[in-house]
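User: Show me a protein chain along with its predicted structure.
Assistant: Here is one chain, sequence first, then structure tokens.
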Amino acid sequence: MKLKISQYIALLLLLLVTGTFWGTWFTLTRSLETFSAQEFIHIGKTIIANVAWPMRVIMPLAIAFVILSLWWYPDKRSAGFYVCLLAGALLVITLLITVGIEVPIDNEIKQWSASVLPGNWEEIRDRWKVFHAIRTLTAVASFACFSGAVLFGSSEGPSIY
């Protein structure tokens, strides 16, 4: 029962992480170039203020519950276990992109104003956009792997050994 509960919570948290990144990519990131500097700064600051604190809790919890699910997974030699492990690795990559690349850029954007804008702001915006797309892909892939393993994996299923 503890495995199913940990998988359920992990799925819910993965859904929230993935939804946050997918929603931003789908509705905003694909058209960043169409926004003026003032609009970009306003939208950026608003999104940062809305998601920074919740994601500081949700992402680590998601990783923790994926790890718990792996810990309690009954057959560590099954394909399902390794797909869950891949999901965890993809989620850690998502976190590393967030903390190592996106957050530092966000911290720069928080200091900007329309009158005080770095000369290379478009280059910084484009870098953020590329890594946000990669981060979104790793989050979606993590959710797909984990949910697939939960739905289709079985401790009775084929072993890779």
